[in-house]
Amino acid sequence: MAWVVAAVVTAGLVTGGVLVARGGGDPSPAVLPALDLGAAGQAAADASSAAGATEPAPLPGGTEPAKRSGDRADRPRLWPPVTYKLAGPLPSLPDRARAWKVGDSVDTARVAALATALGLDGQPTREPSGWTVRDGRRALVAHRLAGVPWSYGSGIFGACVTRTGGGPYRPGAGIQCLDPDAPVSSQPGAGATGRPAAPARPLPPPALPTRAEAERVARDLATRAGLDLTGASVRVSNGFATRTVTIAPAVGGAPTSGFSWTVSVGAKGVVQSASGYLATPEPADTYPLIGVAEGFERLKKSSPLGGILRPGVAPAVELDPCPAAGKVPCTDRLKPRVATVTGVRLGLQLAPAVAQGGSKPDVAYLLPAYLFDLEGGWSDVRAVVAVPDRYLTRP
Predict the structure, then answer these.
(1) Are 300 and 384 in contact (CB under 8 A)?
(2) What's the predicted TM-score (pTM) here?
(3) Which of the residues 19, 20, 194, 290 has an alpha carbon 20 to 30 A from that of 337?
(4) Cα gap 46→6, rounded to integer Å
(5) pLDDT, tens digit, 9 for 90 and up, residues 44-78
(6) What gap in Å lies between CA 313 and CA 298, rounded to an integer?
């Protein structure tokens, strides 16, 4: 009789195909759509581990199957392996966390506010592919893609105007095309006399703002554009012509990876270029997590190079001499590395949905992830998705 009661209780827990968790009223979280975790630049749910992928079965007679061109064994090793070790015991982190969903639409007023913060004179032009604000050679473009990624710069937009009849450059309307047959020199008469062009002198480095001033400019831009900086992580890196400020906003109080704003600040505090995301994250389901220890195991099985390199910081590369008759490119010169995990935080990793049928991804998820802080690796942070495999759909 006991088994009959158990069966009735179990049947009562299932309503409309949704299993209700024991001891609570929350429904089981939904299985996520196929996500491009490789494009997210993080280490978990790799094609060989996240969905239980196996090696191809042998052909009849014991013959090994032919390797596909995309198999890992056939790919050139551009980066050496990394061995991960722990500096201390792994911390105790929550066993459940919420995911967030970001779409491909945004209020036009949000784009206009960003354009105003960038000093652009004009209103957004709405097109099927997104929104555009142009002001002379400067332009802001927000794409109708997952997360609504945007970019700003002062590049040349549009085709150049061909000079009629050739000859030297003359001021006129439009951007004039370069003459491929003209001498590369700024000295008058160099082309006519045949004198060799004088070597170009390197430009002196511009007078960059201080790191504190660059951060202030970037924070002011983000605030006026409507980005909530509560709990945001801000980093400043040095470059030749700019200081690059990376702002990783917090979502639901959790730090994010892959969802940052980047602002390049040049001389006199002028914003030379910038990029980020405009979509507002919406709460999704709450998922159980795999645990920090399992996350570390996923990290050890991941590819050497992650997608969270600090802007403007290149890893120190130790090279061995190439063999005289070696293969090209000589990728074996890169020495393996040992990366030490100095800390782990629970955060969120951006992962776009896989586009179907040649369409563009219109939705992305911020998935619960373990953010491993590293010393000695190719990057200083690696993100590992913490959602169990049973909730991830293989593309």
Answers:
(1) no
(2) 0.71
(3) 290
(4) 39
(5) 444 333 333 333 333 333 334 444 334 444 444 55
(6) 25
